[in-house]
Amino acid sequence: MYEQNENPWNDSQNQQNQQEPFRRNPAPGNASNGLAVAALICSILSIVSVCCLYGAFVFGGLAIIFALLSRGSRKKAAGPARTALLLGTAGVLISVVITIGSFISVSRQYGGFDKFLERYTYTLEHNFGIDLNPNGSDSNTDNGNNNSGSDSIFDLNGSQEAL
């Protein structure tokens, strides 16, 4: 019935067939879908928060990192990872352009960033009563007194006076 070398209890082919359903090897394309989805979510948040300077940088940077990590050992990224890479990069670049444009606009309007800070300080002190002087003793804030001889560098119309 059985040949001498054959053992019905130790069939190697039967053992392989029984263990295949219990293997936990992921499919080749599904191993990095979690990172690709995370990258896609971060890239969408980067585009949405492009007007908030830090949000776009953080989410865009995370999107780029997750998209590159989701590639794994493959040469090309999957569809969601590729989209996330493009959107994350676009979010960071748009935020950089808005930031540079803001600094250029402030520089042109006020004649430099230091003049902008002077005007900002003046506005806070005179319109809102916030004292930015750390000493507090020689404040130039307008506390209801209309002194015509104040040492302010701006008059009430916003134009500069000669000191």
Automatic annotation (TrEMBL):
Leader peptide range in chain numbering: none
Keyword Phosphoprotein annotated: no
Compositional bias (Low complexity): 135-152
This protein's UniProt keywords: Membrane, Transmembrane, Transmembrane helix
Biased composition annotated in UniProt, kind: Polar residues: 1-20
Region (Disordered): 1-26, 135-163
Transmembrane spans: 36-69, 81-104
Highest rank taxon of the organism: Bacteria
Protein name, per record: DUF4190 domain-containing protein
UniProt organism field: Eubacterium ramulus
